[in-house]
Give the backbone structure.
Amino acid sequence: MFAGVLMLVNGILGIFEGIAGIAKDDVYERIGDYVYKFNLTTWGWIHLVLGILVAVVGWGILKGASWAKGSGVALAALAIVAQFLWLPYTPVWALISIAIGVFVIWALCNDRSDIAGP
């Protein structure tokens, strides 16, 4: 449940982050010079699509869907990479989101609910 709730919340926040990047290019300002440079509208679309996928998988985890656990680990890892590349725009939030992704991966990899007990 922990991973599902974190993914659902992180996905919804990613959707809002994406909408803000798409709607207005001057919402985010890059801090310093960075190797990975994308148009903010492109970043907005990346965050919007990734946020939708993360939220859907988070909902699937909460519903107990069999496909959601593996998808959750993969999407959390992808979200961590995306947030790393997003560091120059929102450094504090990117680090928080990376930490959330690490907790999601940890929770999903340590889930033992499918193992039959004694």
